[in-house]
Amino acid sequence: MTKTLHIIGGGMAGSEAAWQAAQMGVPVVIHEMRPKVETFAHQTGNFGEMVCSNSFRSDDHEQNAVGLLHWEMRAAGGLIISTAYDHRLPAGGALAVDRDPFAESVTKALMDHPLISASYEEITELPDDGHWIIATGPLTSQGLGQAIANETGAESLAFFDAIAPIVYAESIDMSKAWMQSRYDKGETEEERKAYLNCPMDKDTYEAFIDALLAADKTEFHEGETAGYFDGCLPIEVMAERGRETLRHGPMKPVGLTNPHAPEEKAHAVVQLRRDNALGTLFNIVGFQTKMKYGAQIDVFRMIPGLENARFARLGGIHRNTFINSPTLLDAQMRLKSRPNIRFAGQITGVEGYVESASMGLLAGRMAAAEILGVELPVVPQDSAHGALVHHITGGAEAKTFQPMNVNFGLFRPLEEKVKGGRRGRKDRYKLYTDRAKAVWTEWLEQAPQKEAAE
């Protein structure tokens, strides 16, 4: 027990933590309640299953903070990011994956590792001894969630995360829709045509907004409140903030030209992104929703090109649980009141697949180093991993702590002076990423390796 790392949860964070620890020579047991105990959003018992999107977002490691996380994870031998590249789909400048083969490959890699095993049961109590990582994500079971709340003495924090619908490609009317990435972004023809676009004129858009606002919505259970994370707002919540909100958000028409009517400027455009390698499924980008199923079909079929759409999955909504990490965790991601337990992933208050996996990467390495009795250098704050873990373990304001994506606002200011304006921002981001890559590379070179453990 004392030399084994136990990980609760086989999502992005738990899978990455298991891989990193095992690669350092530590035996790992992944405790996963699926498929015996199901969740609202998951459909399989695979590790690393993607539920609300198939995108790892921007892959630009020079100008984008999440792209920088991609780079750092690859440099660290990350399982999640390397598998994502193995199952990459065209998505302009983003990293989107074929979700089912991705999860199957993550599962196979973990189960083929000689130091990793799995135990399929629900854990509802906090363990008193041994080395543990809790990486149960946004859908932490009620029993374990209550145990965490009892231990921390705080009420469970939650926001609501909505799932976007998926459409069968063959049911889309391509006499109205067309394939094009915004501003033709991408290095290949396939990348430049990674998105399917459905245009709306002003009258169609206004009717769509009216229907969206009037549609039947999912009711919340007693005692629940809708504290949405701004990065994943349901479209009807965005519409409630103003009739033009969607047109300046996921439905913005800029950077696109309709080949069916090149002289006409669309008032709004709905984009769909390929969801599998076969190109048979497309998810509606930014269209997470809490509308009831019948209402979703009626409203989404108002979109030009989707009049006869058939849905492989409709949208939904689920509770997303996270802890107040700045108050509860130390710099090693350990629960202050029970230092034998670490937390990783979305439950710590990071948002997104990539951020979750990156916190799993750190937690796995930290736990393995502790088990092996070797010193792990302090994660450099100027790296993307360091900026994010510093934020959740002390950098954020505890009273207003909310889930956060990685962004350059979390990074320490640059000492180098750069010119102001748009060019200044581009230069500044490049300086951030250059600095991060340098300190991250140095940290990896200093980190204990499997050979040292043996």
Describe the structure concisely.
This protein is α+β, with helices and mostly antiparallel strands and 454 residues long. It is built from 14 helices and 17 strands. This is Methylenetetrahydrofolate--tRNA-(uracil-5-)-methyltransferase TrmFO.
Could you say what the CATH architecture of the largest domain is?
3-Layer(bba) Sandwich
Using only C-alpha atoms, the radius of gyration works out to 22 Å
**Outline:** globular
> Which ranges are low-confidence, i.e. pLDDT below 50, for 5 or more consecutive residues?
none
In total, how many domains does the architecture comprise? 2
Binned strand content? 15-25%
- Average pLDDT confidence is 89
CATH domain class of the largest domain: Alpha Beta
Structural category is: alpha+beta
Tally of individual helices: 14
Largest sheet, in brief, is:
6 strands, mixed
Total strands: 17
User: What's the CATH superfamily of the largest domain, by name?
Assistant: FAD/NAD(P)-binding domain
Taking the alpha carbons of the first and last residues, their distance comes to: 18 Å
Main-sheet strand order equals 6-2-1-7-17-16
Helix content: 25-40%
What is CATH's topology name of the largest domain? FAD/NAD(P)-binding domain
